[in-house]
TrEMBL record:
Name of this protein: Intraflagellar transport protein 56
Provenance organism: Ciona intestinalis (Transparent sea squirt)
Main location per the UniProt record: other
Domain of life: Eukaryota
Keyword annotations of the record: Cell projection, Repeat, TPR repeat
Keyword Repeat in annotation: yes
Family: Belongs to the IFT56 family.
Claim: Repeat is one of the keywords in the record: yes
Amino acid sequence: MILSRQKPATCIKVNHGIKKAPKMPVLDDFLDKRDYVGAITLLEFQRRCGKVVPHLNMWIAYCWFHLADYKKAYAIYKKMIEKTDCDPQALINLACCCMYLGLYDEAYTVLNTPQQDNFSILQSRLLFHLSHKLNKERNMMVHMSRLEDIDDKCSYYSLHFMRGNYEEAINSFKHLLNLDKNFAALKVYLAMCYFKLEYYDVAQDYLSEYLQQHPGSVLCSNLRACIFFRLYNGKAAEAELRS
């Protein structure tokens, strides 16, 4: 008897039925999609499994911050800076939380600790705004001298907005947008200025352009809800917030 060299049909079916195991998501997958809830869920799962993740607490606090839960981010950074081997970046991040929580004096103190002698770009911007909030005009000018690139100029021009000079802010942000057409965040700043001037249609146009590129922005969703409230009614605004 000559045996067939062909594989049995049952084997072929079994091989065809094999499925690849689903790929385990990584942190960057969630961050790229701005899915900060998913990122926190992954990090907490890895913590429970005992997996060593570099800067795990820093990443969790980062995600809470971008979810606008500044109190939770603040609490994590606060614990981190109590350690002797604290990452200096945690101090700057803590100051960011303080800024959003209105704790200006604490933020200013944190940024002027001995560990923070070498000023980073973010630190200079924070100190510039804190000096303005605390009416430290001389210090504000010192920190303003350290502002150089286009992001720094945004910090400087934002003073026009905070002081209610919305038309000056619009001219400044449009100038920067002409220099860098890909700087999408400038469209949000322009939308905020036009909203303050009650040009709601123009504000909505700028906001729509930004949301086409970044549809998951919480700030933009809130601003668009405010625009809908002004243009239409409360139900339209509520529907936007729920969408």
